[in-house]
């Protein structure tokens, strides 16, 4: 887990291409019962957040990481922040790697209002995706 965090400094471009695979795995590790593992995963996510190059998403990284770390409490506030954000630049894969888990959680929420917010975010961002893989 710590190796992934250190890759943010050594090979940020290579790491950014792998983020769609890495972030879901790290979010699973955040719920590990061992506190040192949780801490290492949280630290790695913080380091990975520095790889994001999209200017709009860079400002959202703390909120996105909080929502990934504590989805029950932080998903809705993060969705609110995402709705207030005006996206001008194209959304790349590393940015989506942090946004999609939060939006996915919002779409799976029991409250209809949270689902609507997540759906609006998806609609707003679909026009900005450059490389739909």
TrEMBL record:
SUPFAM superfamilies: ARM repeat
Domain of life: Eukaryota
HEAT repeat residue intervals: 22-60
Keyword Glycoprotein part of the UniProt annotation: no
UniProt keyword list: Repeat
GO terms of molecular function: protein kinase regulator activity
Pfam families: HEAT_EF3_GNC1 (PF24984), HEAT_EF3_N (PF24987)
Protein name: TOG domain-containing protein
Lineage of producing organism: Eukaryota, Viridiplantae, Chlorophyta, core chlorophytes, Chlorophyceae
